[in-house]
């Protein structure tokens, strides 16, 4: 006779329940802690002057190049993508640096994505084959047992 309870008995053991409570407690602390830290950070943000290339037209003086190690640590525009181009705003005649995306970097990221996608495809295809063989084995074992009982 089967029970109507859908929760396995193994899940009701005190050690198992304690581990679940501990895990979900840590997860909730992590989520609420991140939310509180995020609120504190937003209140301390200082207003930053808008770059001239957002307000007016500009001319590219130097094409997109990779930042040096020193510049990538010190300049804010280098921290965004790791590449920068030198521009000249036409109205204010100011020279500034603008973060940019390199074609070489984009190609590198594209191929990394393609390789990761292919690896995941191969992994999950193998997982499906293994699971299907396991289910086929179980089904044939069940049929064999049924035939033997006749």
From TrEMBL:
Keywords: Cell cycle, Cell division, Cytoplasm, Cytoskeleton, Membrane, Mitochondrion, Mitosis, Signal, Transmembrane, Transmembrane helix
InterPro entries listed in its UniProt record: JTB (IPR008657)
A Pfam family: JTB
GO terms of biological process kind: mitotic cytokinesis
Localization, UniProt: Cytoplasm, Cytoskeleton, Microtubule organizing center, Centrosome; Cytoplasm, Cytoskeleton, Spindle; Membrane; Mitochondrion
Residue intervals passing through the bilayer: 16-37, 109-130
Gene Ontology CC terms: centrosome; membrane; midbody; mitochondrion; spindle
Topology with respect to the bilayer: Single-pass type I membrane protein
Subunit annotation: Interacts with AURKA, AURKB, BIRC5 and INCENP. May be a component of the CPC at least composed of BIRC5/survivin, CDCA8/borealin, INCENP and AURKB/Aurora-B.
PANTHER family: JTB PROTEIN-RELATED, PROTEIN JTB
Protein family (similarity comment): Belongs to the JTB family.
Function: Required for normal cytokinesis during mitosis. Plays a role in the regulation of cell proliferation. May be a component of the chromosomal passenger complex (CPC), a complex that acts as a key regulator of mitosis. The CPC complex has essential functions at the centromere in ensuring correct chromosome alignment and segregation and is required for chromatin-induced microtubule stabilization and spindle assembly. Increases AURKB activity. Inhibits apoptosis induced by TGFB1. Overexpression induces swelling of mitochondria and reduces mitochondrial membrane potential.
Protein's UniProt name: Protein JTB
Organism the protein comes from: Oryzias melastigma (Marine medaka)
């Amino acid at each position: 006779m089967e029970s109507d309870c859908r929760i396995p008995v193994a899940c009701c053991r005190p050690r198992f329940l304690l581990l679940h409570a501990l895990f979900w407690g840590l997860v909730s602390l992590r989520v609420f802690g991140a939310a509180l830290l995020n609120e504190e950070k937003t209140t301390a943000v200082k207003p930053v002057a808008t770059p001239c290339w957002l307000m007016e037209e500009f001319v590219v003086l130097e094409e997109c190049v990779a930042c040096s190690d020193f510049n990538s640590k010190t300049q804010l525009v280098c921290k965004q993508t790791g590449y920068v181009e030198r521009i000249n705003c036409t109205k204010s005649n100011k020279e500034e640096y603008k973060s940019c995306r390199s074609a070489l970097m984009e190609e590198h990221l594209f191929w990394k994505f393609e390789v990761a996608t292919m690896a995941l495809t191969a992994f999950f295809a193998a997982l499906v084959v293994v699971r299907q063989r396991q289910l086929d084995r179980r089904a044939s074992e069940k049929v064999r047992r049924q035939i033997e009982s006749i």
